[in-house]
From TrEMBL:
It comes from the Eukaryota. This is cDNA FLJ45471 fis, clone BRSTN2016892, highly similar to COMM domain-containing protein 3. InterPro entries: COMMD3 (IPR037355). GO terms for biological process: sodium ion transport.
Length: 113
């Protein structure tokens, strides 16, 4: 699975706890998954009060990067091991990897079936 440098950088920013604390990470990740199910969904979440401290450009960049990765992973029918390896390469910690994989598994069938 090859992703552009821009997507990789956005994903690495999302992995950084200094940029996205645990709550902000969870909100943005769920918004990325939800935006693939409902185009209207991401706008409201990106205006969430717990995300106001994050530069809107960074927020949208990371949201787009996450959505792109989700779609690419689905297109390649990535399993948990493949997801985890890429997330580790992007410096995601164990907790964030687990959350991503859980959200991916729950949402995968809604998007790709």
């Amino acid at each position: 699975m090859e992703l552009s440098e821009s997507v990789q950088k956005g994903f690495q920013m999302l992995a950084d706890p200094r940029s996205f604390d645990s709550n902000a990470f969870t909100l943005l990740l769920r918004a990325a998954f939800q935006s693939l199910l409902d185009a209207q969904a991401d706008e409201a979440v990106l205006d969430h009060p717990d995300l106001k401290h994050i530069d809107p450009v960074v927020l949208k960049h990371c949201h787009a990067a996450a959505a792109t990765y989700i779609l690419e992973a689905g297109k390649h029918r990535a399993d948990k091991s493949t997801l985890s390896t890429y997330l580790e390469d992007c410096k995601f910690d164990r907790e964030r990897i687990e959350l991503f994989c859980t959200e991916y598994q729950v949402t995968y069938f809604k998007i790709f079936n």
